[in-house]
Each structure stands twice: as structure tokens, then as C-alpha cells.
Amino acid sequence: MRPARTALWLRLAVALGLALVGPLPVGWSSARAPIYVSSWAVRVSQGYREAERLARKFGFVNLGQIFPDGQYYHLRHRGVVQRSLTPHWGHRLRLKKDPKVQWFEQQTLRRRVKRSVVVPTDPWFPKQWYMNNKVQPDLNILQAWSQGLSGQGVVVSVLDDGIEKDHPDLWANYDPLASYDFNDYDPDPQPRYTPSDENRHGTRCAGEVAAIANNGFCGTGVAYNARIGGVRMLDGTITDVIEAQSLSLQPQHIHIYSASWGPEDDGRTVDGPGILTREAFRRGVTKGRGGLGTLFVWASGNGGLHYDNCNCDGYTNSIHTLSVGSTTRHGRVPWYSEACASTLTTTYSSGVAADPQIVTTDLHHQCTDKHTGTSASAPLAAGMIALALEANPFLTWRDMQHLVVRASRPAQLQAEDWRTNGVGRQVSHHYGYGLLDARLLVDMARTWLPTRPQQKCAIRVVHTPTRPAGGALTPHAAPSPILPLMRVRKNVSACAGRANYIRSLEHVQVQLSLSYSRRGDLEISLTSPMGTRSTLVAIRPLDVSGQGYNNWIFMSTHFWDEDPQGLWTLGLENKGYYFNTGTLYRYTLLLYGTAEDMTARPSGPQNATAPPTSWATSAWPTALQGTSATPSRQ
Ligand SMILES: *[C@@H]1O[C@H](CO)[C@@H](O)[C@H](O)[C@H]1NC(C)=O
Ligand SMILES: *[C@@H]1O[C@H](CO)[C@@H](O)[C@H](O)[C@H]1NC(C)=O
Ligand SMILES: [Ca+2]
Ligand SMILES: [Ca+2]
Ligand SMILES: [Ca+2]
Ligand SMILES: [Ca+2]
């Protein structure tokens, strides 16, 4: 008798959950503690009369039978709070005691999403091949939308040459608080119109993120209900001050900054952010978004034609920026793409002339299907990240990078350098962890348990004092000539026994000072104790500089989640002119990560039976304010 009843209860509960529950708050997950509502399902032996009697006796409203056979009734109690974390013990006791009640259950909120796919009606949506399911796999954005996500409450700002704020496909999402003009120092980022329309870039990027859906015009943005701002800063003199101001505009209001710019992509520049801009990044990730950290989404660069390497660009290779590469409709490496170890993920963009391009808003209230390059990839990722942030607004900047690593797939992307790293993930210098999947990203975002605070473990491997303070130099302290091939090995404990011990890696940096007769001929690689080899910089034929690297920081994402203990090998190899010479002066290995064994977490969406401690015990982050309808002012 008992087992059969249990089974019936279960089936009934499922049926009720599906049938009776209306719209639910977005981001609420059934995996968390149950939330009780003011209604009950009751099974009585003598049908309608009995149900009426019960209702009168205990003060319920009888909402009628649940099935036509008249055994199950739906009762509501007006005196019970609408939503509660505990069941109503009084009614529970009374119903339990009543001999005519065979079974009852107070109802709880259930998260149910429509499985039907929401397809926007915009006339150009059928042209948006990277998200309308025409290409397999695409960015899986339809599936994220089908869960009710659209970027609601998330604020994105595009740092570029301005934004046409009155564009018919942008105006309703335009957010003046997320906008500024640092070229003319005024609040209006409207682009400067020229005969060649050169200042159309920012408007195009903005439409990719947040073009309005279902308005009978143009296409749809990835996060079509997000608020979108524009910072006009590329149309004029650019200084460290202007970059820093742009990157720290309204850090409590703007959640995501999308940037598609950097030093010259000429294949011979080694350049990065100045002091103020580095400080802006640092402040952004530590103080922005109520302390959860601003999300800086960055395009990897367009210097492919010049054999540029994005690890020579200090913006995209910063650990604070989430670097996005490109692939074509057919999963090929585009001609403009730069390969490097700091790229985290990839989205679609243009390729050769025959390949389709990106559909978005354009200047003069138009739309275009001709948006191209790595600059078109970063805003698509920014939009997908906005969907993830709507699914879970409590993610830190590092949580988001963890999620992007896990939500990227090699899919059908072609490259000669796919390798499996020490934790079994495939990674490539062209694509990072592969094609970003919005559905995976939001599913994992919803149940992600926060990562512990970032630890940093710095290991000075080669260090030449500028003024040797007497005594003999140890072998490690002597400057070392770089022969055709030089390997520097170091057995690393990863700060074991200290507070900054690292068990699971996130970013790894290598800071180098070296001289070299022809910089672009030197290939530098790093191999981890788990055997993952990452190219920190490949040869750049156009980089003929004799200046070497002066404390330059290379970064790799390829060791993510690996255990850093053991032997690290830095490789320096002449890949060009036979008579090249140089000297290694300084080499510091910088490990970032946490003491948690991240590989012990289950892959895919996690159990969140208990809310993460940071939600339950600490005050809710002020980032919440930024996601509400009233913007925060801080
Ligand atoms: C690295 O050092 C540890 C501790 O001294 C030692 O146990 C281990 O064998 C060393 N590994 C290598 C590859 O030398
Ligand atoms: C996740 O949930 C499943 C089933 O509910 C359970 O068997 C498993 O142990 C849980 N895993 C963790 C890590 O809590
Ligand atoms: Ca799809
Ligand atoms: Ca202006
Ligand atoms: Ca539209
Ligand atoms: Ca570049």
C-alpha cells in the first residue's frame, strides 16, 4: 500500500507543479530551498461535500476539483503569507488530524520554463545565422532566450567611437547613465558623422548586444532587453587618462564593458595599458559591481594579416579582460585572427568574402549585414555574458571566466593546435576553449558556487640585481645568454604551506626582461607540470625590434584548473635568423588561482541544494541595486 501511495503522490505533485504555477521570478531555481505558497492540494474520500466542509472548518477557499473524478481539491488560505520558506505548521497539523483527509500537500514554487523556442519576428532575424539555428552548432542563444532570459536588468556599455542613441533599434534600450563622450567631454556620445561613416563601429557593436527584438525592424541583439550605453573615446586623441576614465565610468551602474580596441595590430608593436588604465582595471575588478568585479569583455585583435600575436597587446592579455576570438561560419580561423595564449573563448564573425557577416544596427537609422572582424565577436560574447548575469547576478568577474571556460566547446572549429590540457579540456591558441555556448553558460551560471578569493603566488626564477650587492652571484642570478634553444626549469611548490597556496590554476603570467637582436624571431613557450605546452609568443616576422622585452607580461589561460605543483619549463627558441643573440635577465612566474580543487566539482550544472554561503550569510551585494529598475548612485 505505502509504496504505491508514495508513487501517486509524486506523480500528483509533478502534475500540480506543472498545472498550477504561474510566472516565476527570473533566476529562481527549484534546486534551492522550497518556497511555500498559500495553497494546498487535498485528497478527501467523499468528494465535493467533504472538501466544502474542510474549507469552512479551517477557513480555506475551495478552488474546486483538480481532476474530474472529484477526489483531489485545490484549497487556498487567505490568512497565510503568499510565499514562505517554511510550511504552515498549524494547517499541517489540522489537516493531518482530520480523519476524512487521505492526503494533502502545501504547494511550493516550481521553476518551469517554456520549452517552446522563442523566435523573434524581426525581419532581419533570419539573416542572423550565428544565432537563429541555421548553423550547427550556433551560439545557442535561442535556447537561452527560451528560458526567459533576455538581459533584463543588465547594463552594458560599448567603449568605442560613439553610439547612435536615437537609432530605431536601440533607442528603447539606450541608457544615458552608461554613456559618456570623452572625446568632447560631454554626456552625449552621438557619433561624429563624416562622408565615409568611419564612426559607425560603436553603433554596430551596440546593436549586436542590445538591438530591440520584435519591433518589426532590423535584427535582434543577443541581450535584447539589456540596457545599452556607449562611451565615445576612440574618435580623437587617446591618452592614458581617457582610457582610464572610459573604463571606470559608472562602475556601480555598468556591469559589462565591451571593448574592441588596443595597440596597433601591425605585428611589431609590444604595448599595453598605462599606469592609470591598469589602475582602472584593478579598481574595476575589486570595487566595480558592488565588489563582484566589473566584466571587461575584449576583442583579441585584428592583426592576423601581419602575423600579430595578441599576447603582445597588454589589454587583451590582461587577466582582468575576458578575451574573445573569432571563427567563420564554417569554423575556420579568419584571416584577421590573431592567435595567442590569453584568448579565453570564441564567437562567430566574418571570414572570406563568400562567408556571411554579422547583422546589426548601422549609422543613419539603418541596419547592416556587413559587420566584421574580431570587433564583431566581443559584443556577441558581451551579450551572452549579460544573459548569464541575468540568470545569476552574483557572479564575480572570476566566476564568469570559470563559466566561460566550461561553456566553450571545440565544436567544429578547425585549428592545427587543439591540445588536451592537464584537466582534460581542449584548448587552442586560435580559439581559447572554443565556441561559446549561451545555453551552457546560463545553465551553469544559475547553479555556480562562488569561487574562493583569488590567490597569487609569484616565483622569481631568474633575477639579476641591477647592482649586485657583493659576493658571488648564484647561478640563477646570473644573466643567461639565450642560445638557439634555452630551457629554464623550475620546480614549484605553488606557495604550499602559505595562505596563498594554489591548488587550481586560473591565469598564469610570465614576466620577462630579455634582450634580443631580433625580437620577432624568438618563440617563447611555457610547459606546465601536467605537460600542457602553451606558446606565449610565436614568431612575428615583422617585429624586427632589437629592444627585446622589458618586464613584459605574457599570459596564458591554457592551464586553467591544473595543479601547478612541480616542474615548469620556460622555452626560448630562435626561430629566425641564425646569428640572433640575446640575454635573459629576469623571469618571474606568476600563478593565480585558489586552494580549492576545482576538478572535484561536478562538471556541468551543479547541485545547489543549499544556497552558496555568500548569498545566505553576507549582505546582498550592492550589485543587486544595479540590476533593479532604479539605477544606483554611488
Ligand atoms: C619537486 O620538489 C618536490 C619537493 O622537494 C619533490 O618531491 C619532487 O620530486 C620535485 N619534482 C621534480 C620533478 O623534480
Ligand atoms: C548532486 O545530486 C545528486 C542527486 O540529487 C547526488 O546523488 C549527488 O551526490 C549530488 N552531488 C553533490 C556534489 O552534492
Ligand atoms: Ca543552436
Ligand atoms: Ca558629444
Ligand atoms: Ca529589431
Ligand atoms: Ca594585436
Automatic annotation (TrEMBL):
UniProt domain P/Homo B: residue ranges: 451-597
Signal peptide: 1-19
Bias (Low complexity): 608-623
Keyword set, alphabetical order: Cleavage on pair of basic residues, Glycoprotein, Hydrolase, Membrane, Protease, Serine protease, Signal, Zymogen
GO biological process: peptide hormone processing
Gene3D superfamilies: Galactose-binding domain-like, Peptidase S8, pro-domain, Peptidase S8/S53 domain
CDD domains: Peptidases_S8_Protein_convertases_Kexins_Furin-like
PANTHER family: PROPROTEIN CONVERTASE SUBTILISIN/KEXIN-RELATED (PTHR42884), PROPROTEIN CONVERTASE SUBTILISIN_KEXIN TYPE 4 (PTHR42884:SF16)
Protein name: Proprotein convertase subtilisin/kexin type 4 isoform X6
Gene giving rise to this polypeptide: PCSK4
